[in-house]
Amino acid sequence: MNGNAITVTGLTKRFGDKTVVNDVSLSVRKGEIMGFLGPNGSGKTTTIRMMCGLLEPDAGDGSVLGQDIRRNRRAIKRRVGYMTQRFSFYEDLTIAENLHFVAGLYGMKPKRQVVRDTLEDLGLSSRKDQLAGKLSGGWKQRLALAACIMHKPDLLMLDEPTAGVDPKARREFWDEIHTLANDGLTVLVSTHYMDEAERCHRIAYISYGHLIAQGTVAEVLRNANLTTMIVTGDQVSEAAKALKNAPGVDQIAPFGATLHVVGRDAVALKTSVEAAAKRTGCIAGPAETSLEDVFIQLMGGSEDNMQ
Ligand SMILES: Nc1ncnc2c1ncn2[C@@H]1O[C@H](COP(=O)(O)OP(=O)(O)OP(=O)(O)O)[C@@H](O)[C@H]1O
């Protein structure tokens, strides 16, 4: 196996006459945390399912953990931990009982030891006798993670693992993901949260089935080549009205008492923003472009690709 845990090229999947994943090529290095982003229905789950051997692609090739994604799907499934969007437990069983059940299901041995080690590794030992149904969102997520790393996979596929979980629990969950990656596990994680994208080594952005950006956060920001300005003052809503459809203005978004204005044409944007600020008695200045600005821009630009 080379230094990549995942290398896929041209992955394509159709459902009926709809191409939901279209010519996706992606590589993830061993030990890397790769964030997978994109709007709802853009094809993230379908891509993940093809990469972990659960779904056969209509076109494209690749290898995951050194195994061919078409010929060796069973071998891949054994080495992958997959946390689906809607994982489920027996709510009336405890954490430990749930893990015993999963360990039994997959024939893990020695069962007691495996469960004890997993509880320990994920900081669940002190809660092992709590009923799964009574856990808060963050602890449920941790239990789900425990269940999918119990067989010591080499690759973790996490599909929106922290949806609906509070910021502190999300941060702790991500600390855990980093610990696992430091121990050599490769992680591919889909998310809609920008702060989570920023915690990945690299990110990939998919829209309407097309992979349209890939790289470190800094690279994705740089390649988007956007300029951002902020407008502050008492009349920002007037400034926003003046900027609607103005030359160079691609996005306008209020953030509290300031207006965030983004565009691809730096010169035109600056001219429009400064004129609008002057007219409304506001102040205009430069600002950093955020990852969210980039994704909103990418989303707008790729609608033409919809199948
Ligand atoms: N088994 C299937 N049969 C038909 N259509 C499907 C099937 N699975 C997914 N789709 C469609 O494929 C598209 C991509 O879905 P997918 O779940 O991969 O997107 P996603 O990026 O994971 O979305 P989300 O962020 O909402 O989870 C959607 O339009 C979905 O309705």
Automatic annotation (TrEMBL):
<keyword id="KW-0547">Nucleotide-binding</keyword>
<dbReference type="InterPro" id="IPR017871">
    <property type="entry name" value="ABC_transporter-like_CS"/>
</dbReference>
<dbReference type="GO" id="GO:0005524">
    <property type="term" value="F:ATP binding"/>
</dbReference>
<dbReference type="Pfam" id="PF00005">
    <property type="entry name" value="ABC_tran"/>
</dbReference>
<keyword id="KW-0067">ATP-binding</keyword>
<dbReference type="InterPro" id="IPR027417">
    <property type="entry name" value="P-loop_NTPase"/>
</dbReference>
<feature type="domain" description="ABC transporter">
    <location>
        <begin position="6"/>
        <end position="233"/>
    </location>
</feature>
<protein>
    <submittedName>
        <fullName>ABC transporter ATP-binding protein</fullName>
    </submittedName>
</protein>
<dbReference type="InterPro" id="IPR003593">
    <property type="entry name" value="AAA+_ATPase"/>
</dbReference>
<dbReference type="InterPro" id="IPR003439">
    <property type="entry name" value="ABC_transporter-like_ATP-bd"/>
</dbReference>
